[in-house]
Each structure stands twice: as structure tokens, then as C-alpha cells.
Amino acid sequence: MNNLTFLEAFKLVIRECDYENTYKMAWAKSLVELSKNKKNDSDEIVKITLEEIAIKFIKYYWNQTVFFDLIQGSNPTKPPKILSDVKDMIAKYYKYVDNKIPVFFERAEGLLEDNLTKEYNSLISKTIRTLKENVSYRFINYKGKQLTQLYTYHINTDELYMLKENMKQLDDNSQDLYDLINYRWALILETFNSSPRINKKVRIIDEKKITRKNLNVFNKYLDLENPEHYCFHCGKKINKSELARDHIIPWSYLYSDDLWNIVYCCKSCNSKKGNTTPDEDMIEKVKIRNEKLLKLAPRKSKPIKELEYAIEKDLVDKFFIACKS
Fold first, then answer.
1. What is the pTM of this model?
2. Where would you tag: which of 9, 32, 34, 210 has the fewest CB atoms within 10 A of its CB?
């Protein structure tokens, strides 16, 4: 294996990684991202601290979790340690800000540093410990042999060392490497998640282009079946200032806005429900609503055609079963 070039060896690890969890993908992505600044280091041998890598790990798992809550390991009842620790931090963040609006880690980090300092520092320390135990030395171990051309790392230490010329190679090929890493990351996730659009979810996190459609475009259709604006969940009439729209099957699962999955609700019920999976009663209720709406609506517009297709193909049941599983 030592006859491989640095870049060949780096790509080999990405392509041939196991499917137990996504740690190696996060590690590879961290090194590529850090290369952007490290390639200009004054020394020919560059030091990378595990703390620097740990913060990248936290960012990747935070962003994938707050927006899509993707399973990152083969055992859903025992998720990877770093993911569990990041989820605990997200819960503390939500409690502090008193809402569950998803935000990118890059926006939340300042608040964590200033207001949840002890908890955030503890998360970084725990992440470093897990990297030492499970990732740092395993990344360069391929079928029992050490890929020494990647970097130098001594077990249980807090840093690794890489040639500056190799850091430059990572940065020069960063886009191709990101594409390869994200592709492999998505393949791994597809073995754990029934969620649709996995590849798009992984890629869109990097592009920072997660935008929520203005759901007001669905009002004219929702008004046909619910003109008085009664909350789908609690049944109470909604004041204009409290009117909201809810995805019955969570948006984070579907990553899509579809008329057949959207209902009027009050802001209070919408906030309480969050990204929780609906129960069977709610699913039956929205199926009945969809049938009524289809009878009331003209069938020329795209949302109505999609509604008709969803009823014909039992999409509500199919996505509910997949989401529940």
C-alpha cells in the first residue's frame, strides 16, 4: 500500500470504508476543510490538533441533525457516541433559546461559546476522546496495514502531522474530494435511513442552501376545505395572527412541501408537534382531508394533480410507514 501516492491512499480510504458509521467520512471531510488554511503554514510538516477536527465533527453532525435528524450508525438504538453528544448539545441549545427552529452550527456556535461555555467545552472534550479511541489511528489502517503516506499519528496524542505539500493537494482537489466524500456518506446513510433524498440532504448541508418554501402559496387550496381556519390538531378556530401550517409527515423526513401533507394549525400546536412522527389517527385524518379537498378543488393546477397522484398511490401511508420505521 505504500506504493500509492498520498491522494490515491486518501481516496482509497474513502471508497473502501466500512458501513458501521460515518466517522471516517467526517474525518476525511475535516482534513479537506482544514487544508484550506493549513496549506499556507510556514512549516513543511503541518500540525493538526484533534480539537480542530472535533469542532468540524460537531458542525457536520449538528447540521445534519437539526435539519434532517439522520441516523449515522448501524444500530439505531445505540447511535455513535459523537452523534449522541451533539444531540444532547442541540437539546440544551433549544432549551436556552426557547424554540426548536433549526439553525446552522456556524450561526449557533457564538451563542454556545458565550452562553453555554461549560457545556460546549465539555462536548469538544468528549468528541476529542472519541476521536482518539475510534477514528484517528483507524483512518490510516487499511486491511491491517498502515497508510503512512497520509499522516503521522501516535495513539492517545492530541495532534497529527501532515506534509504541507499533501495539505495543498487536499485543497487543490477539494471539490472533487467533497463530492466523493458526500457520495460515500450518502451511500452509508442509505443503509440506515428510509428517508428520501438522502444524497440531496447531505450535499445541501455543504451548500448552505436549505430554504423553506413560503407555504402561503397553499392557502387558496387549504381554504377550500377549511375556510374558517380550524386547527387540524386541537380543533379550535385560529386567530389570524396565530395561523400556521404544519407538515403532517415531518419536513425533515420528506424534505419537500406538498399539498397532500400540509394542513392549517395554530402556532402553539405547530410548535409542540415539531418534527415528531404522527400517530395513526392523524394519518387517517389527513387522508380523509385529502379526499375532501380533491373533490372541492379544480384539477388543473400542479398541487392538485400532485394531490390526486398522492391519493392514487397511497403516499401518505407509504411515507408514514417508512418514517415510523
1. 0.80
2. 210
